[in-house]
Amino acid sequence: MKSERLDIRSSDDVVRVRQLTRTLAIEAGLSLVDQTKIITAASELARNTLDYGGGGVLLAELVEALGRRGVRLTFEDHGPGISDVEAALKDGFTSGKGMGLGLGGARRLSNEFSIQSKPGEGTKVAIARWK
Amino acid sequence: MDRIPILKFGNALLVTIQVDMHDRLATALEEDLTSKIVEHNAKGVLIDISALEIVDSFIGRMLDNIAAVSRILDADTVVVGMRPAVAITLVELGLSLTGVKTALNVERGMELIKARLRTSDTDEEDDVEE
Description:
The complex is a heterodimer. By secondary structure, chain A is α+β, with helices and mostly antiparallel strands.
């Protein structure tokens, strides 16, 4: 199925991530509320990639499994990484200027969520929302 | 750089956000509004977000900041027109915008601000009488 890569290097790219996510969410047939959720989650993760990962790349995919369509988004950066992933998922955790809702919020807004991170190597976060 | 236009009517300011804002644009709006409140001695700020398809933590924080700063500068902020899907998503995200007054639409938001303006007019008259 369809997939697209997008570099995340500036706050304009965060807007582009939202637009691409919207296009795929509509194609997947997600409801308006589900579209809003996945676009909001994408916006949080794209900003994390930019602000904490020093930029990175999004792989956005239209996926299908067991007769259901969905959107999968994988954000990858080669920034400093997260030493304590469990702590980073808690609301209020922030190492920067944000509110600390990014990771935990994105997890709540998605049907699937996974994160891999190694200090000094980078972070990879994948989310999916199914119809 | 792009700017979100800020309209003045009477003692209030009106902002209609019609574009998908990148973060710098949101920060610029926060700064512009703060200086306009002082410049026009505004008592109310109405922010129409009916065109916004999402409000993420950054924009939510901007709305919270605008409300907090305007309160310190003696102006009320009312956010109007939030889409139902946006409201559902905001709560799930963990943002409840507790510091922000909201109204369903521009008319109701204007009523809130007018009510505030009437109260502050009365206060001033009381001061004169005393």
